[in-house]
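Aim 2 progress update. The chain analyzed this quarter is reproduced below.
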Amino acid sequence: MRRFLRHSSNLPVELRLRRHSPSANQRLDNISLGGAACHSSHALPQGTPVILHFPLLDEQLAYPGQVAWCTKQSEHYLLGVAFSEHAPELRARMVEEICNLERYRKHREQQAGQPLPLELIAEEWRKQRLGIFHPPKS
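Predicted C-alpha cells:
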C-alpha cells in the first residue's frame, strides 16, 4: 500500500540532472508528498539525483529528489522520482498548488465546453492567486 495519495496531473515538468540543463517536453503523470512520476524521452538509472521544476507554477521553485525507478513505455519512459526528505512543508505546498491548478483547469474547461491551452489556464490562475496574496494598492 502507498504511503501517500497520488494526484493525477499533466503539467509540463523539467527534470534536470543536477548541474545540467533541463530535459524538454516532459509531462507529469502523477504526484504525491513522497514523489512524482513523469514521462521522459530518456531512461535514467535508479539513484540518479535530479531536480524537478514546474515552469507553470513558479519560475524559481525547484524540488530535489532522486530516480526511484524507471520503466520503458511504448514510446517513452516513466520515471519515478522520490523527493528528498528535507522541507516537507515545501513539498506539501507544491502538491497543493498542482492539485489546485488541475481543479481550476477542469472548471475552466467545463465552462468553455472544450479543452483550453494549459499555459493560458496557468496564467489566469497565477493572476488570480497574486490578487489573493497581493491585494491591489489603493
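Helices lie at 88-112, 118-133. The chain has one domain: 1-138. These observations will guide the mutagenesis experiments scheduled for the next reporting period.
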